[in-house]
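If your schedule permits, I should be very grateful for your opinion on a structural question. I have a record of one protein: its chain in single-letter code and its fold written as C-alpha cells. Kindly check, if you would, that the fold set down in the C-alpha cells agrees with what the sequence suggests. I remain grateful for any guidance, and I place the record below:

***
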Amino acid sequence: MSRNYSKEDDVKTRIKAIEATTDQSILIDAAKTDNDGEVRKAAVERIEDQSALIEIAKSDRVAEVRVEAVMCISDQRALIEIAKTDNEDIVRINAVIRISDPILAMELALKYIIDPDCRGLALFIIAKEML
C-alpha cells in the first residue's frame, strides 16, 4: 500500500494517513478491508469511484459506513436499489433523500422505510427539498 498507511498502526494514525492521501487505490482498499469502521468511513469520504462506493454501500457491515457511501453516490439506480434492499432504516433514509425524483423518493419512503418516525423524517426532508 503506502508507507503512510499501515493496518498495523493504531486507528488515529490510520485515519490521519487516509486523510493525507489522494491515492484512490489506497482509499478503496482501506474502505473495503480495514477492520475499524471509523477508518473505513474516513476512506469512503474521499473515494471518487462510483462503483467502489456502490459496492461499499451494499456490503459494509457497519450502517454508518454504508450511509457515508450512500451520501457520495450519484447513480440513481443504485440509490433506488439500496433504498429497497438495505436492512437498516438509516441507510434507506439516506438513499431515498438522494433520489432526484421527489415523487419516486416519496413512494420508496412509504414502501420501504419501516419505522414510522424514520418514514416521517424522510418524507419531511423530501417535501422540504420540493419547496
